[in-house]
Amino acid sequence: MPLRNKIRAHDRTDRSSPQSRSTGVASDTPWGAARLALTAFFAVDGFLFAAWVIRIPDIRSQVSASHSALGLALLCVSAGAVATMPLVGRLCLRYGSRPVTVGSLAVLSLAVPLPAHAHSVAALGGVLLLFGAGYGGANVAMNSAAVDLVAQLRRPVMPSFHAGYSLGGLIGAGVGGLLAGTLTTAWALALSGLLGLAVTVGAGVVLLRGPAAPLVAPGRPTAATTSPESATSPTSPSSTGTAGRPARIPHARLLVLLLGLTALCCAYGEGAIADWTTLHLTDDVHAGAGTAAAGYAAYAFAMTSGRVAGTWLSIRLGQTRVMVLGGLTAAAGMLLAALAPSVPLALTGFVLVGLGLANIFPLAIARAGAAGGPQGVALASTLGYGGMLIGPPVIGFLADGVGLPLALTTVAFAAVLAALLPLTARTR
Fold first, then answer.
1. Same domain, yes or no, for 350 and 308?
2. Are 347 and 261 contained in the same domain?
3. Global pTM?
């Protein structure tokens, strides 16, 4: 069957489901207190991560690290996150996603100031393990809480939470850049940590006081599916066996794995672009330093805008179509950005990449949570983190052999896979 017909068939199923007929998806749900509080958690998570990232050059000078030594220390962030994510998934099942979200953000806020007080590479690696544990734990817990809230709202609003993360990152990078010449690294990270704690306390009170959303457990039909798309997923009534038996757990795990691979392909591109965009623009396209920085900012702004529109797009087009079209758009944009001979064309390409990748990761995580509960979120997030981890070094090794422009085209191939895997997951 041609790809276009497959997409149309999937989205006809989405719109004709019992959930679509019974509840409708025409109007947006008001921003309730729990949704606002959870969005604040996503935003402060992005803010704290950006506050740390823009101070990496200062920290490197502080510990007198070589490029390779700093790279090993930075790997500790991913190591701490990947080691923590499965554990946090189990904690969410036992104690609930909302309390674990509050605890994880508190750990992250307390860990942010610590790198400024490390005076050796070993000490930096140790504090970054704690930082990574808080960051990874927060991402699993927040996404699990978001999956539960999406099920309660009966709306595909997951992209709006990730838009909060992107917006927080933009604010963190902007404010941190403006104050870079005024505040020392220690003061900047300390104030960021205090802001994180203040938001954690304020938003945490609201989040914990609100009625708990129904826990999405693996293999069980939910009272409210995450979107029209989920009406034929392993967690919906239409996928249960005779006499209301729940769907087979191995089938749900396969679905989660496919969605996790989708997140991995998307995160591969995000990680590669974050580390190599400015270098490509300056060295290969011969842009000035200011233009190169504006190029990455344009990509980040496009991703934020795409996520703001993600709920509306999911309702109008269906989640499968949004993910497929997003992956294909990102692939075309990456080929343009990597191979363009002029700065305007390259910048246009990066904007298309940002718009295309914007909603793939959040929708993949949402559907993994619907199929596998908090542990599904943990597995998909871990795979996604793996993509973020391998992207930059793979691009670096390939760039040494074939040049950076051709190396960046691998992001386009990953985006195509991110477009095709949701079709496979939807069929499963």
1. yes
2. yes
3. 0.71
**What is the extent of the structural domain holding 97?**
32-215
Number of domains into which the chain is organized: 2
Is the Cβ–Cβ distance between 323 and 297 less than 8 Å?
no
- pLDDT tens digit sequence for 304-355: 888 888 888 888 888 889 999 999 999 999 999 999 888 899 989 999 999 9
- The single residue listed with the structure tokens 């969605």 is 259
Asked which of 32-36, 125-129, 294-298, 341-345 is least confident by mean pLDDT, the reply is: 294-298
Do 356 and 395 lie in one domain? The reply is: yes
The answer as to whether 400 is a domain residue is yes
**In this structure, what CATH number is given to the domain that contains residue 288?**
1.20.1250.20
Query: Is residue 4 assigned to a domain?
Result: no
